[in-house]
Amino acid sequence: MAPVPAPELGIPDSSSTVDVRIIDTTGYGKVAADMMFTPPLPGHETFVFPSYSILISNHEKGKHVLFDLGMRKDWETFLPAPTVGFVKQIMPFSVASNVDEILDADAGNLGITTKSISAVIWSHHHFDHRGDLSRFDPSTELIVGPGFMRAYTPAYPTNPESSIQESELASHPVRELDDAAFTLQLGPVPAHDFFGDGSFYILSTPGHTVGHLAALARVTSNGNGSDSDAGQNPSFIFLGGDCAHYPGIFRPTTYKPLPQQIPEFPRSAFGTSPCPGIWLQNYIHPQKSATEPFLKPNPRVNEIPEKAMHSLSAMQEFDASPDVLVCIAHDGGLLGNVDFYPERLNGWRKKGVKNKVHWNFCGDFDVHAGKEKVEADNGGNA
């Protein structure tokens, strides 16, 4: 099937860019797949997911911000007891380092430490994104999305049902971006020009939670710079937070259908590379579709399911662009396949990263088991 042309995103021109570095926070959880999405697919009954923190550097402004902090190392003793019990029951987590420890070790000699961070942006308030804000300078601002304070404060212990500690909000200045702050429209989502120069936009993507935020970082401008291909359009990185918990929830689409061949198919047990897309379509996809996502989000993971689906659809429009690399908070397929901190991700397009990682998640599925199931359901015929 021929792809539908990607929608116009209407991103304003700018010569300003930011550096983007994905930090592996060393926080990993394991969860039953059906807790996050449906239906469970062959070979993918559970999955291990990382929690990333993203370092954004605007050198023209001399500003460095973090988008999410991942999971804090002392979560078992710090988080409210009901939250700790919940985490241990559904997704046991291990964390080796806090983000501040990674930054202050400064493995790349960047000179960017916790004292350099002017703001921390929470995509949302869940425990695996908040990190440990107390480890940052008291002047570091906490940025949250529209409606956050009304929905999630007072915090624990004043509100014993809250998963947020009051100390997390009291230790730093909190700035809630209200709806009026989102004066631009990028594709189908309201946007806020964070630095005022078109280099980094905060996007209002509610649904998973009230005030959930995504972001769009401009990493090359009009084909200029060492990370660009001459004459190319500007390139961007879309930080999706928890708009989706897994790539199979927003891929494939009519804009980017399953291809005839998936090169470098990562499942070694499959025994061949590339993998014919039609096998995934016929043996794995619940609707045998080349243009609908493999999976649907479990409605229980989203506070406002209808808004979550709108934000998911919006992310698909960005994902359709050859100039945008989508990175969600828990995409394990990025590990080992893209440049991580202290390296920059700015050169992703020049390095062909999008083609490499876009279908990487398909390697989680067991095509052989799917074929056997289809044959059993059809009386021995695939």
Proportion of helical residues = 10-25%
Biggest β-sheet: count, sense, barrel? 7 strands, mixed
- Low-pLDDT regions: none
The average pLDDT value, as a whole number, equals 92
Overall shape? globular
Distance between the termini: 22 Å
Organism: Exophiala aquamarina CBS 119918
Protein name: Metallo-beta-lactamase domain-containing protein
Family: Belongs to the metallo-beta-lactamase superfamily.
Keywords: Hydrolase, Metal-binding, Zinc
Describe this protein's structure.
This protein is of the alpha+beta class and 382 residues long. The chain has one domain (19-251, 293-351): Metallo-beta-lactamase, Chain A (4-Layer Sandwich), CATH 3.60.15.10. Helices cover 20% and strands 23% of the residues. It has eleven helices and 17 strands. The protein has helices at residues 33-36, 75-78, 81-90, 99-105, 127-130, 148-152, 166-170, 277-283, 305-319, 353-357, 367-377, and strands at 19-32, 37-38, 46-58, 63-67, 93-95, 117-121, 141-144, 174-176, 184-186, 189-193, 200-204, 213-220, 235-241, 261-262, 275-276, 296-297, 324-328. Strand 10 and strand 11 (200-204) form a beta hairpin. Helix 8 (277-283) packs across helix 11. The longest helix has 15 residues, at 305-319.
